Amino acid sequence: MSETNPAATAPMAADAAPHRYTAAMAAEIEARWQDFWDAEGTYDAPNPKGDLAGDPELAARPKKFIMDMFPYPSGAGLHVGHPLGYIATDVFARFQRMTGHNVLHTLGFDAFGLPAEQYAVQTGTHPRVSTEANMKNMQGQLRRLGLGHDKRRSFATIDPEYYKWTQWIFLQIFNSWYDDEAKKARPIADLVAQFESGERAVPGGRAWGELTEGERADVLGEYRLAYASDAPVNWCPGLGTVLANEEVTADGRSERGNFPVFKSKLRQWNMRITAYADRLLEDLDQLDWPEAIKLQQRNWIGRSEGARVDFPIDGEHVTVFTTRPDTLFGATYMVLAPEHPLVEKFTPAAWPEGTHDAWTGGHATPIEAVAAYRAQAASKSDVERQAEAKDKTGVFIGAYATNPVNGERVPVFIADYVLMGYGTGAIMAVPAHDTRDFEFARAFELPIRCVVEPTDGRGTDTSTWDEAFASYDAKIVNSSGADVSLDGLPVVEAKARITEWLERTGSGRGTVNFRLRDWLFSRQRYWGEPFPIVYDEDGIAHALPESMLPLELPEVEDYSPRTFDPDDADTRPETPLSRNEDWVNVTLDLGDGPKKYRRETNTMPNWAGSCWYELRYLDPHNSEQLVDPEIEQYWMGPREGQPHGGVDLYVGGAEHAVLHLLYARFWSKVLFDLGHVSSAEPFHKLFNQGMIQAYVYRDARGIAVPAAEVEERDGAYYYQGEKVSRLLGKMGKSLKNAVTPDEICAEYGADTLRLYEMAMGPLDVSRPWDTRAVVGQFRLLQRLWRNIVDEATGDVTVVDAEPDEGTLRALHKAVDGVRQDLEAMRFNTAIAKVTELNNHLTKVGGPVPRTVAERLVLMVAPLAPHVAEELWRKLGHTDSVVHQDFPVADPAYVVDETVTCVVQIKGKVKARLEVAPSISEEDLEKTALADEKVVAALGGAGIRKVIVRAPKLVNIVPA
Q: Of 368, 393, 646, 857, which has the fewest CB atoms closer than 10 Å, so is most exposed?
């Protein structure tokens, strides 16, 4: 909304105050000190090799590695909401330096991804050109904020010298397998050696030496942590690419572009993250993360215990996973996911005799019914398919399975409420005790058999039931067979007995299942890391040797993948790289002579580069290895309180809980298992900052109007004379409510912006932006300046005199409070305490004692570093304020001399006593009972009880 510049409305005329702190002065001071810090390398963090080796005092300091989540270099640049976390980590990092830590704090750019590619498609500008221009703009904006980053360590994921190592890590994962016995990743060569020696049986029973090269590749593909497979994927014709589950919205559309997404089977690269499901769960307990984020990861991984049960069909079997094997006698039909690979195999050409009309979907043959239903299911998202309120749909495939526990034939259906991505993609349906199965059984006239005795009095006759009965606190009934009986057993005991029976008879086994699926790692895009994989003439995948890395992106004329009619699910992707035949088809010598190969034409997802970037910050110019082990151990290795190592503080948004954070943890564990790093976790402490919101103003059509041009009159809001609505929401260019940091820096200075963003409220809480309120922090800096500098002459006005006791107490209370607040990242309350001390000095009047002024400047330094550096130099110091010791409070002045104790009789206040804060309960009781007002109020009455809460309360209960 419109306003005037308060910096120009000074109470003292400008010519009478040439040295007053103004926006112009702030701009000059800030630019000068930013240049100085860059030239001096003020924020350069020494590594254990080199600088630290020659400086024992520096080497003895504790380290602190502080990180922000990777920014993406948007063409729109930053608005004031973006720097919230960056300013917070900068304040914290500066405080840590001043409390004796060797601090590593830097920032790079996560620069691969769809936005730059889409811009390239629209304009013909190469993605690198637009991305580098965006990075340059953002670097200028961030520098203006005075962020204390070690610029030597900055990089972008699009730098070939960076993505060389992203490709190298991919190859480590490709050339590894997960040893379930050792519970860790091992080189694939170890697995080959086991097959060759016979220590491990080759699947299928043949000897390793009898297999062809292609057969061996297929066997190893079932073990590799990075593998290609034909699997159901989320195909988005409108974008021309496949998407990870996390990139599809709840209504089955692409998160980017809002196009329909379909299930389709394509050959794609995957990461076997599921091998690490248990460790990803267990190690969460050792991380200092918000419980809400831990819960999201636990739910996403979705561990559940149960059993796998084999249901025979036509001489083969379908395996189901169930958490309730105790209800096996109640399974009256089976359901497969429409995408299940065995559906076609078990679907006959004609309907079996006696097939119910309701089961066929109105189709003449099972093949027609299955094809039609699959097409219908492919157009729905997983969330839509599992919606509880929707009508249950499905179709009989024309086959019957056998319930292993009682030999009954049960019909096999496909239905969209069963997902291929969970369990085995097949369920045994127990309609009496599962809501969805119950509704499906009623819709298709299927048997409903009660096997868990209801405790609500409804009885076991399911024909009278209106809903399923589900309980873990009930007895099993109707569950006896020839060689096993569960009748009368409670659920837990019944589960154990039936699981033992399944294993004894070879019909199944107890197992653990996870909701987590393997990570889809292919994208049909140009602007991403090329896979370091080539295929020979037989289609066998080969890893490029390290000497051929980085495999750089080629130049192409057309950056866009081929897109299709968004509603055409039958299309298939065509990648931009596939059109560059000279790059795709190559002759290489991979160790056995020159041969023709074809390169992989998919690229890695944008998550790849951010899976390991914390390691590159440690050793950014190492061209020989991923990271020097000694350097990695120093900054990220395990230590007391951090058993898995990791970054000391990682700040970013909560929206990355099950994407970036889970993927990065997986990569860290693989690298740890293979001995490349000492840290099994990437980020020890995680802090989620809130969001800076802004008011969105909309006209009668619902169109956003420029917020800066809206006027408020009598509690209503008007744009160009027309009334508009106001609603608090996100800040952004499209909502016409974005405020750039450049605007605020020009009007008030960067230090004011920093203070305002930190003072708006607790860091982890969202808060509304109000440009009119920024002036409050600007005036704080003006008062600070006036307390030290004469606005008329520019001379320092502090005096070498001892402060009075009141000022001493105000100073040390502020030092104690600000120190505690900065350590706990309570920046808003730290600023409040600085303000309180500064106001005290203003109120006392007269020259400020030097000892007080210097400590005040040191407290301000992490929050408003430019003005603090300027005042520190004006106070006569020659060393940068950045590396000064943060002041320490004298405990004698922190504790109040006295506190007020309230004395109550029958709950009513009768006296107030001034007592020492450390007074004992015994002494406080004696003092209260001796007080003349208390004696008079008691009037000689006896005392039944005295309740003492030293030092603030005494409650007397008369007899």
A: 368
556 CB neighbour count, 10 Å cutoff: 16
SS3 state of residue 837: helix
With CA atoms as reference, report the closest residue to 527 among 572, 562, 559, 563.
559
Q: How many whole angstroms separate alpha carbon 567 and alpha carbon 944?
A: 84
**Cβ pair 923, 872 in contact under 8 A:** no
Mean pLDDT of the chain: 93
Q: What's the domain range around 945?
A: 896-958
Domain of residue 319, CATH code:
3.90.740.10
Residues 788 and 811 in one domain: yes
Residues 6+ away with beta carbon under 8 Å from 79? 731, 732, 733, 738, 739, 740, 741
Query: What proportion of the chain, given as a percentage, has pLDDT over 90?
Result: 80
* Domain count along the chain: 5
Q: Is there a single domain that holds both residue 822 and residue 928?
A: no
Which residue, chain included where needed, has tokens 């589900």? 470
CB 528, CB 558: distance < 8 Å: no
d(CA 437, CA 415): 11
Same domain? 540 vs 404: no
| CATH value at residue 909 | 3.10.20.590
Residue 510 in tokens: 């107890």
Among candidate residues 637, 653, 688, the one where a domain is terminated: 688
| Residue 48 within any structural domain of the chain | no
Same domain? For 573 and 445 the reply is no
| DSSP-assigned letter for residue 548 | G
Instruction: Summarize pLDDT for 407-461 with one digit per residue, the tens.
Output: 999 999 999 999 887 778 999 999 999 999 999 999 999 999 999 999 999 999 9
Residue 388 pLDDT greater than 60, yes or no: no
User: Which CATH number fits the domain that encloses residue 869?
Assistant: 1.10.730.10
pLDDT at 2 over 50: no
Question: CA–CA separation, 498 vs 510, rounded Å?
Answer: 9
Q: How far apart are CA 209 and CA 216, in angstroms?
A: 9
At residue 663, does pLDDT exceed 90?
A: yes
Alpha helices, DSSP H only, in 748-887?
750-759, 775-786, 805-823, 827-844, 850-860, 865-874
Same domain, 882 and 915: no
CA distances from 170 to 220, 600, 867 (A): 16, 13, 47
| 3-class SS string, 569-592 | CCCCCCCCHHHCHHHHEEEEECCC
Answer yes or no: is 39 within a domain. Answer: no
DSSP secondary structure letters along 47-107: PTTTTGGG-HHHHTSPEEEEEEPPPP--TT---TTTTHHHHHHHHHHHHHHHTT-EEEE--
- CA–CA distance, 937 with 422 (Å, rounded to integer): 74
Eight-state DSSP code of residue 847:
P
pLDDT at 9: 43
Contact 489, 477 (CB under 8 A): no
**Model confidence, pTM:** 0.85
